[in-house]
From TrEMBL:
It catalyses: tRNA(Trp) + L-tryptophan + ATP = L-tryptophyl-tRNA(Trp) + AMP + diphosphate + H(+). A motif ('HIGH' region) lies at residues 10-18. Its main location: cytoplasm. It comes from Streptomyces luteolus. This is Tryptophan--tRNA ligase. GO terms for molecular function: tryptophan-tRNA ligase activity. The keyword Metal-binding does not apply. The lineage of its organism: Bacteria, Bacillati, Actinomycetota, Actinomycetes, Kitasatosporales. InterPro entries: aa-tRNA-synth_I_CS, aa-tRNA-synth_Ic, Rossmann-like_a/b/a_fold, Trp-tRNA-ligase, Trp-tRNA-ligase_bac-type, Trp-tRNA_synthetase. It is found in: Cytoplasm. The gene is trpS. ATP binds at residues 9-11, 17-18, 149-151, 188, 197-201. NCBIfam families: trpS. Belongs to the class-I aminoacyl-tRNA synthetase family. Coiled coil: none annotated. Catalyzes the attachment of tryptophan to tRNA(Trp).
Length: 336
């Protein structure tokens, strides 16, 4: 059976980008057709300056939202990365397979390290090695597919390279996975800056729709979206990034292609109104279910505990096999 792994890092409140680029596909498609694991990748949130209490809060919120969006613990494992030691165990081994040049070429590292330096901070070593931990997340479970937005495909390519290199050097151990981004809305752009990705850790939230924004706030943000010169509503990502982003969001909400919607609106204003209403309706059930789940924190804890147990049992044999393959002496009795 196909195996799927994906994750969200708790560095900010989840956004419409996270939902359309990843979470919705996990809920609607992936969990029904494969053995799936979905993870709040909290260790990744420590790679930039962070407030410990906030990371803890956001981790719980992300897990609750994943369930609110419709991940069903009967169908998939939902868990927190730091509850399963195998991720960190394997990450070190993969650091001994990766080289520093390929880490420095990662686009996200380049962008984020510049941002950290501009803020006057130092760049944590873990920001550089982050993609290796991400590779460990995926390879520990023998995942065939990794449903992610477009911004993560370079990291999945690196994961493939590391898996192939490891297998060649030390014998076949890992499945070589592939990224499976959604067809529409694989890169939702910031509403105020439609040439940049809508990202949860941006400083100003005006161009970002958060899953827990009140409907009125969602409407306001979309109605104030930056659009392009001209008046024609056509899908052209290069020439009309603002309009194309709205078309793509609306198309994703309606389960269509953005080209199909080109020409369906007489003005930018009409497009904005339709998009705002579609997003409000898309998020309404998620917000409602989130509110209900917040009232039963014990239920979320139980799901995460069971998810971690299941994940640990799946990852351990592969990670132990990697230890043996690399030449580490296993303790008497067989297992680490
Ligand atoms: P993260 O937490 O930034 O994002 C979670 C998922 O949401 C997608 N996404 C978007 N998709 C479309 N448009 C956007 N604007 C947008 N913003 C985010 C991301 O592509 C991602 O699929 N490194 C990962 C987390 C991670 C992971 C993993 C993912 C760690 N280990 C192993 C898969 C497998 C990240 O930072 O995602």
């Amino acid at each position: 059976m196909t195996r799927i792994f994906s994750g969200i890092k708790p560095t900010g409140h989840l956004t419409l980008g996270n939902y359309l680029g990843a979470l919705r596909q996990w809920v609607e498609v992936d969990q029904h057709r494969a053995e799936s694991l979905f993870c709040v990748v909290d260790l990744h949130a420590l790679t930039v300056e962070h407030d410990p209490a906030r990371v803890r809060r956001l981790s719980r919120q992300a897990a609750t939202l994943m369930l609110a969006a419709g991940l069903d613990p009967e169908r998939c494992a939902v868990f927190v990365q730091s509850h399963v030691d195998e991720h960190a165990r394997l990450s070190y081994l993969l650091e001994c397979v990766a080289n520093d040049g390929e880490m420095r070429r990662m686009i996200q590292y380049k962008e984020k390290s510049v941002r950290e330096r501009e803020r006057g901070g130092s760049v944590r070593l873990s920001l550089l090695t982050y993609p290796v931990l991400m590779a460990a997340d995926i390879l520990a479970y023998g995942a065939d597919e990794v449903p992610v937005g477009e911004d993560q495909t370079q990291h999945v390519e690196l994961t493939r390279d590391l898996a192939v290199r490891f297998n060649q050097r030390y014998g076949h151990t890992f499945v070589v996975p592939r990224a499976t981004p959604p067809k529409v809305a694989a890169r939702v752009m910031d509403l105020q800056e439609p040439t940049s990705k809508m990202g949860k850790s941006h400083e100003s939230g005006a161009g970002i729709v958060y899953l827990l924004d009140e409907p009125e706030v969602v409407r306001k943000k979309i109605l104030r979206a930056v659009t392009d010169s001209g008046r024609e509503v056509v899908y052209d990502r290069e020439g009309k990034p603002g309009v194309s982003n709205l078309l793509e969001i609306l198309a994703a909400c309606e389960g269509r292609g953005p080209e199909e919607l080109s020409g369906a609106f007489d003005s930018y204003g009409e497009l904005k109104k339709a998009t705002a209403e579609a997003v409000v309706e898309l998020l309404r059930p998620v917000r409602e279910r989130h509110r209900e789940l917040c009232a039963e924190p014990g239920r979320v804890d139980a799901v995460l505990r069971a998810g971690a147990e299941k994940a640990r049992a799946m990852a351990r044999p592969t990670v132990d096999a990697a230890y043996r393959a690399m030449g580490l002496m296993m303790p008497a009795g067989g297992e680490v």
